[in-house]
Amino acid sequence: MYRFLLSRQWVILTLVALLLIPTMIRLGFWQMHRYDERTARNQLVSDALGADPVPVEQLTTPGHAVTRSERYRSVTATGTFDTAHEVVVRRRVNADETVGFHVLTPLVLTDGKVLLVNRGWIPADGPSQTVFPKVPAPPSGRTTVTGRLMPDETTAASGIKNLKGLPDRQIMLINSEQQAQRLGAQVLGGYIAQIAPEPKGDSPELVGAPGKEDAALNYAYAIQWWLFAAGVPFGWVVQARREARDRAQAAAKEAEEQAEPAAV
């Protein structure tokens, strides 16, 4: 009755099913791994954003690489903005996905070290980004700022190429080591995205807080893959029984047709 399972068509179908089942199971575990990673990152972000602000030099020093647990931590710093060495970061977008610049201003601390402060987003002056834009001035004199600590930007992490030959006072990536060479000063590792004080006239536009990754989507994908894996043998059995039934019915009908002339 099930001898047809040895046919070429059914052997190939069975082999494909046997390959699909472990593949789908592995894909489900991969999605669960992604779920765990995203959940852990979301927790790190939540913990960092919820922590009380601390002086910036408690978390970073010149040459320090900001760690995952330090990223997004709220820090405070007191110093004087050095607008003479201010630069803008090209090809940055705001919440409306409008391309412009981020304003990066060195803050000279009371001990002489320098902290890079991303003061926020400004639009480009016209369609060309080759001209240095008009940048709203920061507070003058001694100022205390609060911001989220961020690691140095890299091409590998951001996907942004660190282009050479840019217009004067324009950069592609925020990198404390490169800025230390440019400024000839001790620059704290990483930089901060300013959150306070808020700028006058709402410009520059402060960089928003990081959003949470959708970890639940990976969990749903994992369940989906495992349901697919369970469905493969079920579908194979249903199809095999259906073909066996169809073959039995065809054989019975053929036997009836052959029996009728004999009876006559």
Automatic annotation (TrEMBL):
<keyword id="KW-0812">Transmembrane</keyword>
<dbReference type="Pfam" id="PF02104">
    <property type="entry name" value="SURF1"/>
</dbReference>
<protein>
    <recommendedName>
        <fullName>SURF1-like protein</fullName>
    </recommendedName>
</protein>
<keyword id="KW-0472">Membrane</keyword>
<dbReference type="InterPro" id="IPR045214">
    <property type="entry name" value="Surf1/Surf4"/>
</dbReference>
<dbReference type="InterPro" id="IPR002994">
    <property type="entry name" value="Surf1/Shy1"/>
</dbReference>
<keyword id="KW-1133">Transmembrane helix</keyword>
<comment type="similarity">
    <text>Belongs to the SURF1 family.</text>
</comment>
<keyword id="KW-1003">Cell membrane</keyword>
